[in-house]
Here is the input.
Amino acid sequence: MGYWLVAFSSRATGESAWLLLGLTGMGAMVGVKAFWVVLGEFLGVAIAWLWMAKPFKRLTDEYDSITIPDFLESHFKPKGPLLRIIAASALSIFVVIYVSAQIDATGQAFESFLDWNYYTGAIVGFIIVLAYSFIGGFVAVVWSDFFQGLLMLIGLVALPIVAYINYPGENLFQDLAAIDPVLMSWWGEGGITGLNVASVLGLLCIGLGFLGSPQVFVRFISVKDTKELDKGKWVAMAFTILADAGAIFIGLFARSVFEGTSVSIGANGEDSLIALVEAYMPLAIVGMYIAVVLSAIMSTIDSLLVVASSAIARDFYQKIFHPEMAQRQMTKLSRNSTLIMSLTALFIAMTVAVIVPERTVFWFVIFGWSGIAATFCPMIILALSWKQYNASGAVASMVAGFLSIPLFKFLMPQIEHYGAYFANMEEMLPSFIMAFIAGVIATKLTGGRNTALPKTNAG
Here is the structure.
């Protein structure tokens, strides 16, 4: 793959519905504080492309890896299949959660844009994504991601410009301050407090998910050579700044324009994009924005399903139990795995819609994103930077990251006095820290690696 394809595909995959519905809603609700997400995402994307992509690409080429578990087995040379089993299992579980959040967003998008029934919209979107994931596999996914990413970028940049040209007020920021001064506070209500600092850290750390998540890093495996990465990094970083900032400005404009009017941007602000498009764009362009939202959702779902199904078919079933399996059989198994995971995700999305009607797209998506990130990213970072890091450390990092997500999401916020700090910080940062600590301790206890890493490694 060339750098344009890889850059746009990785960014489209890394964003999803939370960018167009969740982040726009966040901009409308919390104001300029949402720009911490832009900084966090930019830093995460920059570090991944500038310092991690090349070493990772060189090692996966050297190992002839085509999946992340392939890389892990070649890099750590474990004595048994435990590393593959944990990687494939963790990926499958959190992919299902992440995909369910995207299906939920699909239903909400159809409901808001076209006034469809939520469940009808979710099922229609689900069928479309499943169809082309089945037909084309990884190559089709990357090409579709490219065009979907292009749609997303154009849509997120164009709408704030149109809103600015047609803005009825004098000054957006002054008008927002008049609505609520907190909207112009970088720290939120109360200024710099312990709880607000924890909240800002949580927003910044969303970008940690770009430092090794399989659905993003598998794009680095597919790029033609490392020279393409030098070109692609500028595309990826520019995409991040323009798309993320555009999403927040959409929320800010929507809050200012529709405050006190009969037009609703939703209880969580997640109808901001829809309301602004319908107010300022002709009907044909409204149709394009429906495609933009669905593109963001589908570019993530298809990538996740392809990565997870390959983990089950190749990295688990074939590599561990049936090494002699023919390619045709593996393709069939991969498609069956995709179908099963998709149906499970659909069931979860429908169940959550009934049980938690007040949910937001933003935080539903972030839970799945954090789970994948905390399981894989600390392990990938240590693998590329620490020569002594071994298979035991990798297993410990993945298990600790995997278990920490529900711990810091559901249990730690209940602690008296300190629970509010964990709730504001969210689960990503503490889960990362636990994964790093577990990996270092396990490596030290088991004596580290006996051989140095290849010279191509950044460490």
